[in-house]
Amino acid sequence: MGELVDFFLRSRNFILFVLLEVLCFYFIINTSNYWSATYFNTSNRYAAKILAWSNAANEYANLEQVNADLATENNRLRSQLTQVLQSKPAAPVQYQADSTFANRFKFTVAKVVNNTTQFANNYITIDKGTDDGIRPGMGVISPTGIVGKVKICNRNFSVITSILHSDYLVSSQLIKAGEIGTSKWDGVDPHLIKLNDISLTKKVSKGDSVVTSERNSTFPPGILIGRVRSVGIQPNKVFHDLTLDLATNFSSLAFVYVVENRLQGEQEQLEKQVETDK
After folding, report:
1. DSSP per position, 146-202
2. How far is CA 118 from CA 26, 121, 159, 252, in A?
3. Which stretch of DSSP H or E encloses residue 79?
4. Residue 136's closest CA among 32, 9, 230, 260?
5. Residues 105 and 220 sit within 8 Å (Cβ to Cβ)
6. If you average pLDDT over residues 157-171, what whole number do you get?
């Protein structure tokens, strides 16, 4: 306490000067309309700037939670959309799927905690595991397109084989041409992927969308894989050389959706039985 008193005594002249300056400033503002308006306009301008900076900082701090909330909402909407598409009659055949088939896909939101794109065989780690119902073999998609397939799990984490993997194949379909082929990464550019096994007799247009086909039990049909970037001819072969722009940007991947096909085991068991009986 004594040191505080000594400080005020030593600084009494400076403190008195500051108080007098503040008092003069107060009288100037209150006795002059011009200076009063100038003061309030200036103070309001700086107060608005500080408030804007504060709001921007708060929004940035809450950005992760906002993204998580959006991912959850997208998950709900995707589930509803998939259910509607799976139950919709397919033209020209008047077919109506039953509720069990239409509701066979379930989606779980997960956050990406590790991701590689620079290797020939790339993997992704997410923060959901067996405790969340995740198991090997489940498909994984992003808000914009396909991602890969679950490889291994423990209680709290799962590792996904990325579509950016030299051995990963996806049954794919061109929307306009209607042809079914196989998408496979060539290990070069993480933004591009190849579409194989499309016959030269079929016309393929640049910009045509490529989606997951009906001929797989891992992904819902119609999940975007990419769009045709270039159309060429494979040397000494009867297939197009097709390069796609990948729909998923793996360099900025933050949230994914793990897809569970509730009927996958039943389908695969029956198909294996047919192979065994041959």
Report:
1. EEEEEEEE-SS-EEEEEEEETT--EEEEETTT--EEEEE--SS-TTEEEEE--BTTS
2. 65, 8, 17, 14
3. helix 63-87
4. 260
5. yes
6. 95
What is the C-alpha to C-alpha distance for residues 250 and 193, in angstroms, rounded to an integer?
13
**Would you state the structure tokens that stand for residue 235, as one six-digit string?**
């040397």
Chain center to CA of 171: 22
- Dist. CA 230–CA 184, nearest whole Å: 15
| Tokens of residue 199, six digits | 């016959």
Whole-angstrom distance, CA of residue 153 vs CA of residue 43: 58
Cα 47 to chain center, whole Å?
37
How far is residue 81 CA from its own chain's centroid? 17
Could you tell me the pTM of the whole model? 0.68
Peptide bond into 89 cis (omega under 30): no
Give Dmax (Cα) for the chain.
105
**Pick from 174, 130, 173, 122: nearest CA to 148:** 122
Side chain identity, residue 146: I
pLDDT tens, position by position, 103-136: 788 889 999 999 999 999 999 999 999 999 999 9
Residue 198 has pLDDT above 80, yes or no: yes
At 92, the pLDDT band (50, 70, 90 cuts) reads very low
Domains of the chain and any CATH numbers: 2-60 (no CATH), 73-264 (2.40.10.340)
